[in-house]
Amino acid sequence: MAPVSGLAFDPWDPAFLADPYPAYAELRARGRIVYYEPTGQWLVPHHADVSALLRERRLGRTYLHRFSHEEFGRTAPPPEHEPFHTLNDHGMLDLEPPDHTRIRRLVSKAFTPRTVERLKPYVEEVADGLVTRLVERGGGDLLADVAEPLPVAVIAQMLGVPEADRGLLRPWSAAICGMYELNPTEDTAARAVRASAEFSAYLRDLIAARRTAPGDDLVSALIAAHDEEDRLTGTEMIATAALLLNAGHEATVNATVNGWWALFRNPAQLAALRADHRLVPTAVEELMRYDTPLQLFERWVLDDLEIAGTTVPRGAEIAMLFGSANHDPAVFTDPARLDLARPDNPHISFSAGIHYCIGAPLARLELTASLTALLRRAPALALTAEPERKPNFVIRGLRGLEVEVR
User: At what angle do helices 234-265 and 82-89 cross, to 10 degrees?
Assistant: First the structure.
């Protein structure tokens, strides 16, 4: 398939970032796979293809388990970016089997439904406390006052990060996640490198402290885990803790504010939710689908594969468009409509296959807890100003969400 010109898809255009979903509809109409010259990626916009490719073993989050950079036709990252890549590339999200399998098996014990269920009282207590303070102040920034501190507190509690240090996590995470955007600038890279070095040093000290004095936390558990060859290396331990701290709150923060912005724009649906809190479970799934916090997920082509008659060669990069897949009318009836009671909702906001989000049960618990607390304690919550969207495409969120409690 030849490159396609004249696309409305433009991840640097503020109008596109404000509402990318019409451009996705155009992409789906163009075909099942479209080459996008500005990023050198093959865009995949249809739900069925995205779902299948997330399970395709000829694709990988990395290629270094099979090829060198030169063998794969790629250039190695600049040496000055090394702190970012050491931290990022040793986390399980960017690894393939057998390393991915080994690390995920060790970490998964902390995220089983039963384990997460035991966290429920703590999550609900934190959410209730944050919302209570918002109500007492008569309103504020829903992002800074509720959406951010809840998941940061929960994942930090799980990992054993002292409460006094938790304010460090969000800025480090934001700087590092800038590298996941398309064609990041050198300034973005410099911030990510600096944050990676600082974050790694902090986690190295935290791990050393837990080796001396273990606690009832995930870092201590990972140190203790040693199924013979399954023990984590020091680098893997740091990268795993960083990944859990970053991934453990980024998506939840953005899902919360994207979701409430969607509710404010759809007052009839918000009124229905306020009238019947039993809608909360399906509302959480629909809000994740309706304005997806992670819009794009990349994979490398490890072996040639064919998609819709197009051969995509080894060394190419595929960009699976989660936001488009979640609005595919082949799967979702009237996908542009927010329907909090949508009965069948196979969204892929948590990915699929071996890289399915290990924290999905925890994210659902946090989103349910904050949504329920706000509905109960602030039943007349209202928007006071139209929010400004962050100038990001891959990780979709808002700069803030100012609200008042009437």
Answer: 80
Question: For residues 24-44, b (16+ Cβ closer than 10 Å) or e, as one string?
Answer: bbebbebbbbbbbeeeebbbb
How many structural domains compose the chain? 1
Residue 39 lies in a domain: yes
The mean pLDDT value for 179-204 works out to: 95
pLDDT of residue 177: 92
CA angle 381, 382, 385 (to 5 degrees): 145
Task: Give the structural domain span for 302.
Answer: 14-405
14 burial type by CB count under 10 A (0-12 exposed, 13-18 middle, 19+ buried): exposed
**pLDDT over 50 at 3, yes or no:** no
Among residues 326, 153, 162, the alpha carbon closest in space to that of 249 is found at: 153
Please, what is the average pLDDT of the chain?
93
Task: Report which residue type is found at 287.
Answer: L
Q: Is 8 a domain residue?
A: no
* Residue 70 confidence (pLDDT) above 80: yes
| pLDDT band with cut points at 50, 70 and 90 for residue 252 | very high
Q: What is the pLDDT of residue 222?
A: 84
Lookup: tokens for 386: 């139209």
User: How much of the chain is in helix, strand and coil states, percent to nearest 5?
Assistant: 55, 10, 35
- Read off the tokens for 192: 């990510």
Distance of CA 257 to the CA centre of its chain: 14
401: which 2 tokens? 């969400």
Report the pLDDT value the prediction gives residue 69, as an integer from 0 to 100: 95
Return the CATH number at 239. Answer: 1.10.630.10
Tell me, what's the pLDDT at 2?
41
pLDDT at 1: 43
Give, in degrees to the nearest 5, the angle at Cα 201 between 200 and 205.
Answer: 115
